[in-house]
Write a structure and sequence with these properties.
alpha/beta; 434 Repressor (Amino-terminal Domain); Rossmann fold; 6-stranded parallel sheet; 6-stranded mixed sheet; 11 helices; 12 strands; 39% helix; transcription; LacI family transcriptional regulator; transcription cis-regulatory region binding
């Protein structure tokens, strides 16, 4: 009898059933009716906590990994991270248990405790967007890895993150190699390192990478439009605003959704991509493939990030005592996905 059986028979999610049976229903505002239903079902079915997992006779481990995401993990880009983690777990002889906190710190803490209660060999704490996070104390009760995140305060848990600094350099090189040496504008962040959305590691590192290459190549960035949110609407508004003062030759959009909005503003102004203005983005969001011409973008390797997090965690589980020799930050390369949105500047 498993926790999933109890959840199905009770008509609730596995996460809800877990929280009820670990005594956290009230603090997380699970209804009394749902709590009674789960407890009654568990008693009728003879479910006992911990019975679903038995340690392997040779290793003393459960061969399971807990994966806790701050967003719905079954769809979109987060789903790619989960699939990467699941594939790597399978290759290494582990099972992956997935929980979703919805960004609620109390739920996140409860899920970490639930994973530990069920003797998961290690826990991966994943963020949808690369950012600084507050790490629950319970994470340090065993092997743990931060995925797509860095801790606000010092922690023993290593981080697996995309190489955003190199991504910024790659984006700048695409424009420099196409011949752009003037008329370059940034949409989403800058000009200063602090002119970025709150807690955004990606924005800071992309900006620094861009600066490295543009400065070395002698390219002057004419303007930078900081956007508090990286949405198509903000990209549209920022591009319209900069065109009141400048005629851009190239736009570096800090994500693909901003680039989508920029495309609309350029089209309304009668400017073509890339004939009049070159545009490059970041993330390789699905929207990039629907843009015409297809957007040139620097891809977030979600599948590879998930797989790398599992590999780091498995190494911690199978080789305890080597923490001092392991790097605290593991950077995963971000490849350029060529589209048709960058061309040489008009002279």
């Amino acid at each position: 009898m498993t926790l999933a059986d109890v959840a199905a028979a009770s008509g609730v999610s596995v996460t809800t059933a877990s929280l009820v049976l670990t005594g956290r229903a009230r603090e997380l505002r699970i209804s009394e009716a749902a709590e009674r239903r789960v407890r009654s079902t568990a008693q009728e079915l003879g479910y006992r906590r911990g019975s679903a997992l038995t340690a392997g006779p040779r290793t003393g481990r459960s061969q399971t990994i807990g994966f806790i995401s701050d967003a719905v993990a079954s769809s979109g880009l987060t789903g790619d991270m989960v699939r990467g983690a699941a594939d790597a777990a399978y290759r290494n002889g582990f099972m992956l248990f997935v929980g979703e906190s919805g960004g609620d710190p109390a739920v996140e803490r409860a899920l970490v405790e639930a994973m530990r209660d069920r003797r998961a060999d290690g826990v991966i704490l994943a963020a949808t967007h690369t950012r600084a996070v507050v790490v629950p104390d319970t994470v340090h009760d065993g092997p743990a890895v931060l995925l797509n995140a860095a801790a606000w305060t010092r922690t023993r848990a290593p981080s697996v993150v995309p190489d955003e600094l190199q991504a910024g350099r790659s984006a700048a090189r695409v424009l420099v190699e196409a011949g752009h040496d003037s008329g370059v504008h940034l949409v989403g962040a800058g000009p200063g390192a602090y002119d970025v959305p709150p807690n955004s590691i990606a924005a800071v590192e992309r900006l620094l990478g861009l600066r490295d290459v543009f400065t070395a190549a002698g390219v002057e960035v004419v303007s930078a439009q900081r956007c508090p949110k990286w949405t198509p609407e903000c990209g549209y508004d920022a591009t319209r605003d900069l065109m009141r003062r400048h005629r851009p030759k190239a736009l570096v959009c800090f994500n693909d959704r901003l680039a989508f909005g920029a495309y609309q503003a350029l089209a309304e102004a009668g400017l073509s991509v890339p004939g009049d203005v070159s545009v490059i983005g970041f993330d390789d969001h699905p929207i990039a493939s629907w843009m015409r011409p297809r957007l040139t973008t620097v891809a977030l390797p979600h599948h590879e990030l998930g797989a790398k997090a599992v590999e780091v965690l498995v190494d911690m589980v199978e080789r305890p005592g080597h923490d001092a020799r392991r790097p605290l930050v593991h950077r995963v390369p971000m490849p350029v996905r060529e589209g048709g949105s960058v061309a040489g500047p008009q002279r």
